[in-house]
Amino acid sequence: MADDATLxxxxxxEYGKPARLFSAPGRVNLIGEHTDYNDGFVLxxxxxxxxxxxxxxRSDRKVRVRSLRVAQDAEFSLDRSDFTxxxxxxDYVEGMARSLESRGVKIPGADLLVESDVPIGAGLSSSxxxxxxxxxxxxxxxxxxxxxxxxLALAAQDADHTYVGIRSGIxxxxxxxxxxxxxxxxxxxxxxxTTEIRCALPGAAIVICDTKVKHELAASAYNQRRDExxxxxxxxxxxxxxxxxxxDLSEEDLETHGQVLSETLRRRSRHVVSENAxxxxxxxxxxxxxxxxxxxxxxASHASLRSDYEVSCAELDLCVEIATAxxxxxxxxxxxxxxxxxxxxxxxxxxxxxxxxTLVRRFQERFQKRPYIFAVRASxxxxxx
Length: 385
Ligand code: GLA
Fold this sequence. Notes:
alpha+beta; binds alpha-D-galactopyranose; 42% helix
């Protein structure tokens, strides 16, 4: 990963002018999966891996973008009214620009150079990190009217929906905007209120295991889950006309009214309802440093994502199974949208090595490839450097 000084030098060599630098982190969700688009609760942290964008304005309305990591330069005009989806990372950049302009932010043309150490497509929010860093860069060049970090997050979510074609929730963009060192954020995805929860984890570490698996159908399956939740709400309204989202349903409600749902929709709803309860309990456990309880909730979350929500896969299940058998591991679960990507492990500091060694050995035995294992800490959100 090029440091700031190197990135500025490379920008100067490429575009012949000095740059400002903006960045946004990746994220790990500790718990609260597939709850955000149900108006529910999530408990993510921002991590130390970041996407950094070097930027300088242009006098015309063209945007040129290069990445140090992905060999594909792109160029588009902000004046062009039509948009063609490329199916690549460029959609996030152009989508973000268009989403901001539709909110009245007048972006000048710009030259961009992007660098990142957030693993791509691993469920650590590499795409939101690109959207938010580019979005912060664009809005900073535009000056007035300034967008609040929250509105910037909403603009990025809109870019996902309108230009990328994935109907994501708001978790990723909000934690990237508001993340803080040593803090997890409990986000109420209905009100968008955020509560900081101390995440110092005395004597423990958060370890990520990236399976490097990415299943083809992840985006369409994600949208399908979202549709299933909406169908569940529509059906449950026969009994509960006041119901706005699965967030409004308790476990008892589901017990009472669940027969209006198909078996599949009942399981999808049960995941969301139980995961919301687990997330609130996890936030309480974390704030009193009750890591055993937090770990237990993580394991229950994984079981629910695997069996009720069906967004896990063999590789993730194996990683959780291996990890939870290692002494000193409080809990493990898949993190992010699923269908591949990473698990998050909460583990005693003196057991980290044992966990990493066991995961690598047993994963390799079964899948003949090496997972990528690293520790993360709660880190700061987006910023100008
Ligand atoms: C992806 C989406 C988020 C959220 C998670 C699942 O990361 O971008 O909005 O829905 O999946 O919790």
